[in-house]
Specification:
Blueprint (H helix, E strand, L loop, with lengths): L2 H33 L5 H7 E9 L5 E9 L8 E6 L19 H6 L2 E6 L28 H9 L1
Parallel strand pairs: 3-4
Antiparallel strand pairs: 1-2, 2-4
Length: 155
Amino acid sequence: MNTRVRRFRFVVSCALLVLAALAAAPARWFIAQSSTETPGEAEVRARYTKYEYRIPMRDSVKLFTAVYVPKDTTQTYPFLMVRTPYSVSPYGADQYPKRLGPAPVFLRDGFIFVSQDVRGRFMSEGTFEEMTPHKDVKKSPKDVDESTDTYDTIE
């Protein structure tokens, strides 16, 4: 068999494999989605109360923070905190996301979810600095980094 025929068969075989994979992808996606359903906005709204805060940091910059607290107040809950430059939307105390936490089990098990826009992003004040370097020695309230912002938020 000459080289051109082998190359043609190889290209056709690869193209058929790609088409088969693309055809099967929606079916796999549907199966994965149906087996790991995420709770919708209605379930989040039914189980949680949303609060929005502008939390002052040690240098007076205010960071936007959304807190989702379980409506069941008969027990205490651990909290999960996410600080992100990618937005903690939806904004507005009456606006709820379609899901909370890294997986649906966290919503069902009961956690307090704390989501915060980092400095200079979206609803937070300040200047955004990607990958703020850690400052071992803080000489004044103006010496801030990710650890001080996290500490001030929890405090």
